């Protein structure tokens, strides 16, 4: 039996559907999915099996014009994920078309070494009529020589089977990198932190979600099969701490409950989750925080 295995980088603008597609392909939630942009910070790998092929998805942060150190580190991680991959898939939102951001990404793809397979996946196809979709497909292929084009809805699963089959056929021959039952190569501590950060992002509004981070400080396995997880939510200002805690601690309780329930479903066992909020004004400039997120602090320069 000939096996295939390789890395597939999903790139695109923030909110293009990369995390949704990763989770759909893998069949489990390994990547944070919210309607707020720039939620994916680290290059999360989800592992999917298709026939004799093992597809390792690298869900990169959205590519956008960076302003802060964290932004620059995220964009560097995204292009790093693309450069290291065997196949790149560019996701473009059907209803938004060729934006300034998509144009910048196409220019970036042109600068990558030749010979790599790069596919186009036009996502959210249910939001536009067929003539608009066909025109967008032609315009994008006129601008860049894509190996293949797919029209998909990552949320509903339309067209994803064809994309998955094509990826499986075009990966290099070689042994599988992960055990058959492994769906992600992120440490559980980081997955747990991402789950809590997602709940914070969904619950809180305005700029605050991008000025907080979550770290799993302690993970204790208990004799009854359950686990105790202690996490710290770092915020920039005292005012932010009050927002996260909420009136009489209601917000943090609600976030803790949602995160705990999702972790219990994901891990298939009881979880005791304890959250603390700490004010750390300079966390965006601390190299340790970047390491926790799987980003390179130096890339933010």
From TrEMBL:
Sorted alphabetically, the keyword list is:
Cell membrane, Cytoplasm, GTP-binding, Membrane, Nucleotide-binding, Ribosome biogenesis, RNA-binding, rRNA-binding
Q: Per the record, which residues fall in region G3? A: 59-62
Topology relative to the lipid bilayer, per the entry, is: Peripheral membrane protein
InterPro entries with a match to the protein in the record: G_ERA_dom, GTP-bd, GTPase_Era-like, KH_dom-like_a/b, KH_dom_type_2, KH_sf_prok-type, P-loop_NTPase, Small_GTP-bd
HAMAP family associated with the record: GTPase_Era (MF_00367)
Q: Which family does it belong to?
A: Belongs to the TRAFAC class TrmE-Era-EngA-EngB-Septin-like GTPase superfamily. Era GTPase family.
Name of the protein in its database record? GTPase Era
* Organism (species): Marimonas arenosa
Q: What is the lineage of its organism?
A: Bacteria, Pseudomonadati, Pseudomonadota, Alphaproteobacteria, Rhodobacterales
